[in-house]
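BUG: 3D viewer hangs when loading the predicted structure for this chain

Environment: internal workstation, default settings.
Expected: structure renders.
Actual: progress bar stalls at 90%.

Input used:
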Amino acid sequence: MKPPARGRGLAVGVIFATILIDFIGYSILIPVLPHFVSSLGIDAFWIGLITALYALGLVLFLPLWGWISDRVGRRPVILVSLLGTALSFVLLALSRTLATILIARFFGGFFGASIGTAQAAITDLTDDDSRAQGMGVIGAASGIGLVLGTALGGLLGGSTRRSPSTRPPAWRWRTS
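Structure tokens produced before the viewer hung:
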């Protein structure tokens, strides 16, 4: 049984926000990363690994989140993944070592793997006539998240050039 139209709209909005946050989480670090890791003295290999760990977490744990959401429901998985994503952002923002950055990015991907659950939830909420529109919402959230994340990362990256410091990059904008 599908929820009433108003409930579907709210659920689709939450799913949109979840996907948006996941893709912002993937792309926000890209412009900031070179400036941030230069203070750690690491090379291009580690920059690539930091970026790849998010995607690795997604690929490895997408089936697990799908399996869990089939058993306990879509809503709990999406809520846990949002909380986990937020915590991975905090860990990344507070990171001062390469190991912590690697862990934060992997956990970001682990919790971001709820994308499959979000797609399944859209399928649950839509009928055959509106399913393409629902999947379009996911595509739009993905694209907007990539654009916003990169732009936000660029703003943070710009602040790291103006005020070099040992503070984590997510907090540097406050002092510039």
